[in-house]
Design goal:
By secondary structure, the protein is mainly alpha-helical. It has 28 helices and 4 strands. It has a two-stranded antiparallel sheet. Helix 6 crosses helix 7, helix 8 packs across helix 11 and helix 20 packs antiparallel against helix 24.
Length: 576
């Protein structure tokens, strides 16, 4: 799956044509199925319109070896798709209305103010005879833009694997680092933007870009900051809709119970707690296969810290329910969590290559533990005993605070904070495990079972939720707890990324027989933490450098030069 954009099935194009009374085609075009999937043109257009904040120009653009007079196959396909889209809507050119429909098609959720105006301006750069005041763009206009600098689209319109992305990110950083001091200053970022945009960037664009890159605000951009930003830019980011939640529906007089639950569900599914850039990049192995596999093990090791209470939460909720039907359906969910399935489920599992003896009677918690142990064996490392407390701190706190609200808090934890959103989250993780480690269905059975069953579990819990949001006070509690839980998930993802950048090598080799070297490996994050205020511009002597991990990490964090010495010639050879 490409790492930048995701397929999004939609019927918005057809419905929009009807709403605006566009004349429909007598028969659906031969390529109509492409209109029901992600628009290739819309995807490429989104990259073009956001070029000032998405620095994803390809190596060919940097090296300047793409012909300015020819379009790639990707650009040709994009133009063909635009032609079909316009025909479907009964339009001869792209206006702002059609432009927004294209953005809808890819699920674009960033601020759209001025985006169409930017595109008009870009067309004007490519064609000095273009009439910007017409506010319409023809297919020929788009051809001219895609054939010009810097909008030429290479054959590889997206990165097909994480190694290619990481290689590009590092090459871009090293090219921009003119002084070779392993950090980018303001002028270097400005020069990088000039190359990427093909024109002189405005002061506003430069300031915005530098602020976004310089996370710690020290006036310089180190490689970790640069890589982190590029990974965020590599996915179609989904904005947090906290401020957009329509709180008028909290009043039962303004909305039904079903309407309230439906709106809160939409809020959850659009939240960064479900679509965080970490999840999307893990799904495509955007860090590279090796680093993605390692990061997934860290993620799941940390995840095990708080997901062990799921069964106890269900039992606690069962004791608070009065409706016998609700008790019955929730008890069925509990049975499946404990590994008790009907025959149909076991047969379907066997068809997918999942042995019935490997899941029957085995609680899901145990399946999760077995999965983590499998990954530890495959990667020859373990993180379980070394997960920093800060990673799960906010998530644990959110669960504890929600439980103070009794039944409503537990419903928020189990439904909005888990069963509703877990299928999407686990789908990202499953994709990442398959791409980075080649896991089979038998090996990944925990996620396969949950993705399938949690959808049914969510339907059961939904009925209970609808019966418990009759008053404004109940709705306020559900909304408050849901927001708290989702924000805590965002914090968890951010913390996993921080943990991953703190320790770039495994803390413990599970196959090692000599544990005397463990203290050296386990102390690396502490060493980096203690050095953090002294790294920038430093010349470092790394005594006992081993394979050179700390030296490389210090260079990435801003050291000017490192010199490593070690008693072992083999270590020095490995470091070089």
């Amino acid at each position: 799956m490409p790492p930048i954009l995701y397929d999004k099935t939609t019927d918005r194009a057809a419905s929009a044509a009807q709403e605006h009374e566009q004349k429909p085609e007598p028969a659906q075009p031969p390529a109509a199925k492409t209109l029901r999937q992600r628009s290739e043109f819309a995807g490429l257009l989104a990259q073009s319109g956001l070029r000032a904040s998405l620095y994803l120009e390809r190596k060919n653009s940097i090296n300047g070896n793409v012909s300015k007079s020819n379009m790639s196959e990707g650009a040709i396909a994009a133009i063909d798709d635009l032609t079909l889209q316009l025909k479907f809507w009964g339009k001869s050119s792209l206006d702002e209305e059609a432009f927004n429909l294209l953005l809808d098609d890819i699920g674009y959720s960033r601020d759209r103010d001025g985006l169409f105006d930017d595109l008009l301006e870009d067309i004007g750069y490519a064609n000095p005879f273009f009439d910007v005041t017409s506010r319409t763009i023809s297919v020929d206009n788009m051809r001219q833009m895609y054939a010009s600098e810097p909008y030429r689209i290479p054959e590889q319109a997206v990165f097909n694997n994480g190694e290619a992305l990481m290689s590009f990110v590092e090459a871009l950083f090293r090219t921009a680092d003119v002084t070779g001091d392993n950090v980018l200053d303001y002028d270097e970022v400005k020069q990088m933007l000039r190359k990427l945009l093909g024109s002189e960037p405005t002061q506003e664009v430069i300031d915005e870009a530098f602020k976004a890159l310089d996370v710690d605000g020290d006036g310089q951009v180190n490689f970790e900051e640069f890589k982190s930003f590029m990974l965020k830019a590599n996915v179609n980011d989904v904005s947090d809709l906290s401020s957009d939640f329509n709180e008028a529906i909290l009043s039962p007089s303004h909305s039904s119970d079903l309407k309230f639950v439906t709106e809160l569900e939409k809020y959850c599914k659009a939240h960064r707690g479900v679509n965080h850039h970490l999840l999307q990049n893990l799904a495509t192995a955007a860090f590279g296969k090796k680093e993605t596999a390692d990061l997934l093990l860290r993620f799941l090791s940390a995840y095990s810290k708080f997901n062990s209470n799921f069964i106890s939460n269900i039992n606690a909720l069962l004791e608070m329910l009065d409706d016998l039907y609700h008790i019955e359906v929730l008890s069925e969910n509990l049975e499946e969590e404990m590994g008790h399935y009907d025959e149909e489920t076991l047969v379907e599992g066997e068809k997918m290559g999942i042995k019935r003896e490997s899941i029957e009677g085995i609680p899901h918690r145990q399946l999760f533990i077995e999965l983590v142990e499998l990954l530890e064996t495959k990667l020859a490392r373990s993180y379980l005993k070394f997960i920093p407390d800060y990673i799960c701190e906010k998530l644990t706190h959110a669960i504890e605070e929600s439980m103070k609200h009794g039944k409503l808090g537990l419903l928020a934890i189990l439904y909005f904070g888990s069963e509703l959103i877990v299928p999407q989250i686990y789908s990202y993780i499953l994709d990442g495990l398959r791409l980075s480690m080649g896991l089979t269905n038998e090996e990944a059975k925990f996620f396969i079972l949950h993705i399938d069953m949690d959808k049914d579990h969510a339907d059961s819990l939904r009925e209970i939720i609808i019966a418990n949001c009759r008053t404004k006070a109940e709705r306020l509690v559900l909304l408050k707890c849901t927001r708290l839980l989702l924000e805590a998930r965002v914090s968890f993802y951010d913390s996993v990324l921080k943990y991953g950048s703190e320790m770039s090598e495994p803390v413990f080799d599970v196959h090692a027989t000599d544990q005397r070297c463990f203290s050296d490996i386990a102390s690396r994050s502490n060493i980096l933490h203690m050095c953090r205020d002294h790294i920038k511009g430093a010349t470092v002597l790394d005594v006992g450098c081993g394979t050179g991990h700390l030296s490389r990490e210090l260079l990435n964090r801003g050291a000017t030069k490192t010199v490593g010495v070690d008693i072992s010639s083999d270590m020095i050879e490995a470091a070089n």
